[in-house]
Amino acid sequence: MHRPKSTLEQWRILQAVVDFGGYAQAADHLSKSQSSLNHAVAKLQSQLGIQLLEVKGRKAYLTEQGEVLLRRSRHLTQTVNELEQLASNLEQGWEPSLIIARELVYPMELLTNALATFLPESRGTRITVVDTVINGTSELIVNNQVDLAICGVPPKGYIAEPLCDLEFHLVCHRDHPLAQMGELEDDRELAQHLQIVIKDTGVNPTQEIGWLKAEQRWTVSNFHEAKVILSKGIGFCWVPEHLIQDEIQSGQLVRLKMKGASTRRIVLTLVVPQRDNQGPASKLLESLILAQHTEATEPLLV
């Protein structure tokens, strides 16, 4: 079994001597004697058989070989520091990873803003964001498979913090026959055309939300795919307003008008499935997600 010739402490001392410009300065910073630092570096050079430092006047300079090895040593000591910090975090209950369920319609920009603020305080916590739709979100909550969940209609018995309202618009391409009809009298005219539907991610869907009366439907995984189909002049779809602003502004997509049913609105909420066992990282991220929404509302109990 190979035994290392050097120690982490020796490399840390070498780094300090270089970073602070000499043995005396490094000794003050490390609260060690200058002679002990001289001895540590001399022993390191002897063990490696390479000169790492050369002293000119009162200052120590790296040799070419020393520059290469010092650079690699910084990665090594940083990794050890991170390992020790991780051990400390785990001891304090700080979660090494978090899983977030995001209802597909929730603006990713808002979640990214919260995650960006979380990053400097994350202590290396790994984040997984799972895009879900309707029953898929509820199933992950009920089965305790996620740490945080942004959902539309939370399962019964779970406390939900309201985040925001989202408005859906009934849209189609400007060249689609529906776009030429003006205001629709009722949904019977819609039912004769192809509807684009977003697939529920639930394993066992128990509820259907929204208008699903079209005789022909195409089901896709996300709104990006739905918009690609719509751009070809095919079908109609209910799409969140924030996802079609550019297409509406450019005139590529048009909002369909139907008496009493041109738009629909849903409330998105934040759920912590295991509130009693929630860790500090999850609590911090929860607060940062809530902070993205300025309106103060009371928690909902469903």
TrEMBL record:
Limits of the HTH lysR-type domain: 7-63
InterPro entries: LysR_HTH_N (IPR000847), LysR_subst-bd (IPR005119), WH-like_DNA-bd_sf (IPR036388), WH_DNA-bd_sf (IPR036390)
Keyword tRNA-binding included in the entry's annotation: no
Sorted UniProt keywords: DNA-binding, Transcription, Transcription regulation
Domain of life: Bacteria
UniProt-listed Pfam families: HTH_1 (PF00126), LysR_substrate (PF03466)
Family of this protein: Belongs to the LysR transcriptional regulatory family.
Name used for this protein in its record: LysR family transcriptional regulator
Organism: Shewanella avicenniae
